[in-house]
Amino acid sequence: MSHFRSKILDLGGFINPRVVRDHTKRKVFEQFEPERQALRYVIHNTSLPQRVRAQAQLQLASMHAYTRSTQIKNRCVAGGVPRSVIRAFRLGRYQFRQQALAGELPGVKKASW
Amino acid sequence: MAAPYSRLLDLVKVQCRIFSLNFNPERARLGNKILRQRLRGPALAAWYPRKTVSFRDLQDTYSRQGLTMFDEAEDDREEAIQIAKLRGKGRPKKKRTAAESRSAKKKK
């Protein structure tokens, strides 16, 4: 959501609206993670009164969608593509191939057998 | 010979105190597994490369102290404006009042 987005763009590299949105979600998740974990602890703790736990459940469910980690999607750093992103290089498959063939990724070599 | 249960319990209690673990012989669900989890936020937020210092940042910081740098694009732009003005293709004068803008419309 727009009120979470930073007023000044703090991203280098490839930027498109979807990358900015995902980056915003990541930062919001980082900010609210302790709060979410605290609520999860209260919910999972069976020694607490049922009423407190139910309230914690409601509070966790009413938190903004951007504070949820499931909203985060790994995108290609060089092209913003959301599919088949190689996690170790943070690149989509085509960007990975191009950069690897150009020798920009240390230790990556084309194999043939 | 097996040790009595109460003795084992004491042992576990001391063990928990030393290693700062939660002593929970009834195996109640206390949600401690959530407290044990590490925070994933910093790692997730570092996915995209952040902005580093750019040439424009340098210009901005030093222009306050009166130091200017040669900016070729800006120079080109100003030159183009001068040429356009000479050809009579510059931007029209800003209309400051409502009366001025109305008279400009009527001329058409």
Automatic annotation (TrEMBL), chain A:
Q: Name one GO molecular function term.
A: structural constituent of ribosome
Q: Please name the GO terms of the biological process aspect recorded for this protein, alphabetically.
A: translation
* Record keyword Ribosomal protein present: yes
- Determine the domain of life of the protein's source: Eukaryota
According to the record, the signal peptide region is: none
Pfam families found in the cross-reference section:
Ribosomal_S14
Q: Does Oxidoreductase show up as a keyword for this record?
A: no
Keywords of the record: Ribonucleoprotein, Ribosomal protein
NCBIfam families, A to Z: PRK08881.1 (NF006477)
Q: Which family does it belong to?
A: Belongs to the universal ribosomal protein uS14 family.
**Designated name of the protein:** 40S ribosomal protein S14
Mind giving the lineage of the organism this protein is from?
A: Eukaryota, Fungi, Dikarya, Ascomycota, Pezizomycotina
Automatic annotation (TrEMBL), chain B:
Enumerate the subcellular locations listed in this protein's record, separating them with semicolons. Answer: Mitochondrion
Concerning PANTHER family, the annotation shows:
MITOCHONDRIAL RIBOSOMAL PROTEIN S33, SMALL RIBOSOMAL SUBUNIT PROTEIN MS33
- The reply to whether Ribosomal protein figures as a keyword in the UniProt entry is yes
Q: Which residues cross the membrane?
A: none
- Keyword annotations: Mitochondrion, Ribonucleoprotein, Ribosomal protein
Q: What is this protein called?
A: Small ribosomal subunit protein mS33
User: Which superkingdom is the protein from?
Assistant: Eukaryota
The GO cellular component terms are: mitochondrion; ribonucleoprotein complex; ribosome
- The annotated regions of Basic and acidic residues compositional bias extend over 97-108
Name the family: Belongs to the mitochondrion-specific ribosomal protein mS33 family.
> InterPro entries per the record?
Ribosomal_mS33
